[in-house]
Structure formats: C-alpha cells, structure tokens
C-alpha cells in the first residue's frame, strides 16, 4: 500500500472562545477523522499544545487509493459547519498550505481537494 502522506490540519481558534471547549472540539474532530479510517497523530509543538495564535494541529494520514482525500474534505466540512465559533482550518502538505473558514468552506472545498491531490 505504500507510505501514507501526512497532512497537518491546524485549527485556529476564533477570538474569545473558551480554551477547554476549543480543545474538546479539536479532540472531537480527531475522533471523527479516526472514525472515517483516517489515522491521526499529535503534532509536536515547541512549548506545548497550542501555538501563539491559539491553534492546535493534528497530523492526518492519507492512506488508500484516492478515497482518503474526499473523506478528509467531507469530515472537515461537516465539523467546521457544526461549530458556533469555528475559527479556521489550515491544511498544510509539505511547504504548501490552504486556509478554510466556515463562510467560504463550500466554495473552496474543490480547491482543497485539488490541493491535496496535487501533492499525491
């Protein structure tokens, strides 16, 4: 099957969001990714869980023959649409990144899928 490609999914908190609720929401995202068969692991951050911008990152393995990319996009879309204050999601693969927010997620979903496929 080959080595999986690891994608960093960084969730950036919306201003004023409760830190405990934010951490719990990101844990829920990780659970949903794993529930769809997408392996995850922690991203080691210097100095702790979150960056200075209040973000938390999850590494997601894209495994399988192409089915992982649409699954990842669908899980991210569903998760961000359910958030009251979702902030944004930044997906990074190598040196390239794409930023997604709830108001623009649907219109940018195809760009995200193309972005992920471009790096296969």
Question: Any chance you could write out the topology, listing elements then pairs?
Answer:
Layout: E1 5-12, H1 19-35, E2 40-42, E3 56-62, H2 68-82, E4 88-93, E5 96-101, H3 102-118
Antiparallel strand pairs: 1-3, 1-4, 2-3, 4-5
Overall description:
The protein is of the alpha+beta class and 120 residues long. The chain has three helices and five strands, in the order βαββαββα. It has helices at residues 19-35, 68-82, 102-118, and strands at residues 5-12, 40-42, 56-62, 88-93, 96-101. A hairpin with a 2-residue loop joins β4 and β5. α2 packs antiparallel against α3 (102-118). The protein is globular, with a radius of gyration of 14 Å. The chain crosses the membrane at residues 56-76. Pfam families: EACC1 (PF19953). Keywords: Membrane, Transmembrane, Transmembrane helix.
Tell the overall outline: globular
Q: If classified by CATH, what would the architecture be? A: 2-Layer Sandwich
How many discrete structural domains?
1
**How much beta, percentage-wise?**
25-35%
Can you tag this structure with a few keywords?
alpha+beta; Alpha-Beta Plaits; 5-stranded antiparallel β-sheet; 41% helix
Question: Nutshell version of this structure?
Answer:
The chain has helices spanning 19-35, 68-82, 102-118; strands spanning 5-12, 40-42, 56-62, 88-93, 96-101. The chain is an alpha+beta fold and 120 residues long.
């Amino acid at each position: 099957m080959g080595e999986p490609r690891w994608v960093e999914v960084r969730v950036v908190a919306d201003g004023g969001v409760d830190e405990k609720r934010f951490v719990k929401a990101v844990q829920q995202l990780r659970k949903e990714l794993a529930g769809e068969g997408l392996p995850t692991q922690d991203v080691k951050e210097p100095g702790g869980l979150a960056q200075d911008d209040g973000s938390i990152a999850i590494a997601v393995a894209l495994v399988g023959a192409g089915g992982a990319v649409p699954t990842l996009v669908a899980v991210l879309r569903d998760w961000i649409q359910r958030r009251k204050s979702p902030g944004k999601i930044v997906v990074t693969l190598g040196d390239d990144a794409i930023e997604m927010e709830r108001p623009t997620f649907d219109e940018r979903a195809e760009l995200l899928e193309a972005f992920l496929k471009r790096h296969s």
